[in-house]
Amino acid sequence: MPRSLRVDKKHLSQVKSALRDKDYSRQIDLAADLDCSLTTISSFLNGRPVDRQYFMEICKILGQDWRKIAVLEDSSEGDETEASIYVKRPDPEDRCYQELLKPGAVLRIKAPKRLGKTSLITRVIQQLEQEQDYRGAYLPFGLADKTELQDLDKFLKWFCVSVGQALGLDNELNTYWDEKYSTSKMNCTSYFEAYLLAQLSDSPVVLCLDDVDLVFPYDAVAQDFLGMLRAWHEKSKISKIWKRLRLVLVHSTDVYINLDTNASPFNVGLTIELPEFTPEQVEDLISQHDLELEQEQLEKLTKLVGGHPYLLQEALNHLKNNKTSSLEQLLAEATTEAGIYSSHLRYYWAILQQNPEVANALKTVVEANQPVQLKPKPTRDLHSLGLVYLQGNKAKISCNLYKNYFQDRIDSIL
After folding, report:
1. Strands 106-110 and 135-140, sheet pairing
2. Which residues have a Cβ under 8 Å from the Cβ of 333 and sit 6 or more positions away?
3. Looking at the whole model, is its pTM more than 0.90?
4. CA 201, CA 10: separation in Å to the nearest integer?
5. CA–CA gap between residue 243 and residue 232 (Å, rounded)
6. Which superfamily does CATH assign the domain made up of 90-273 to?
7. Which architecture, in CATH terms, is 343-412?
8. CATH T-level topology, domain 4-82
9. What letter would DSSP give residue 10?
10. Mean pLDDT, consecutive 10-residue segments, the chain of 414 residues?
């Protein structure tokens, strides 16, 4: 399961036309809407490798069928690209790998946005495919439409078809979906058991559900869907075919929906919580970009963004691809509209404008000199976004980039 995809050269003019048709006069506006880097958008539009999840999300917003325009990219071959850079995290990688060797395993990976959850689990799944003959299916819930998330039957049909496509199988809903006599959950379970898993009878299947927390706000759908996943795990204890399914649930927030203990997939299996990069991992990332930073420069960079994988990657990509730009200039412009983080920061700004309670909680954190206790919901929201870290029940700003940016601006929202 390649981590990166690129647009086939014969479709480049098509996607560039789609950009104009969707009224994106500037690439940076699309980057801001998707909360991704300008480098990612530029790579997509010029046929260079892009992380699989972003590739699919860009296609969705541009109205393109990613399966028809994508070329699989083997990041182990050819020139080194942004998509091929990966910092190893030996302990969580090994724990994930070992857990997914277990029949009927349920693995949860939890961390705020942009801390490398997707990169880590796709790397682990690739390793399982190569070494253990697994079949991997990666499904980002961000590709589901709101209308699908609001209706259980629509959602489970989307779920079945999407998993089948990820496994390279045809849509056979008409054969296995009984509209008259079976419930949606029974139909979905039957589709997996009689078709998807049966078609891959010789291989364990690891199914990664990324951003699964996007279903949480839709309580009725979430209750039934997550309860069904737990039932599948229970079936794996007695059924050979269900033993071959390994579930990976990737999410940013705590599970705040009210699930019965016996109907929750979040209290079985193993939970992995990803931290920021260690100093050694930061140095590895710098080395992979073929850059050399003096100790003082490294300290200034990490003082601004800590060990945050995405923020570090953005800085290093910029320095590597813009030879005339200096780290000092990058740091000086970091919180301005001219800075490399402008679209990323505007993404947060837009969210806070729509959520005054969360904005007010962030104001409290920014103005405090030590961790502070907030109400549960805004704490959960800020942590999910990656704007704060938690120390027990108290929150502290996650890095100086966010502190400096919001310190002068947060009052204008309230």
Report:
1. unpaired
2. 339, 340
3. no
4. 37
5. 9
6. P-loop containing nucleotide triphosphate hydrolases (3.40.50.300)
7. Orthogonal Bundle (1.10)
8. 434 Repressor (Amino-terminal Domain) (1.10.260)
9. G
10. 77 90 83 78 88 86 88 49 77 97 96 91 93 93 91 97 92 92 94 95 93 93 96 96 97 84 92 95 94 94 96 93 89 93 90 93 94 93 93 93 92 76
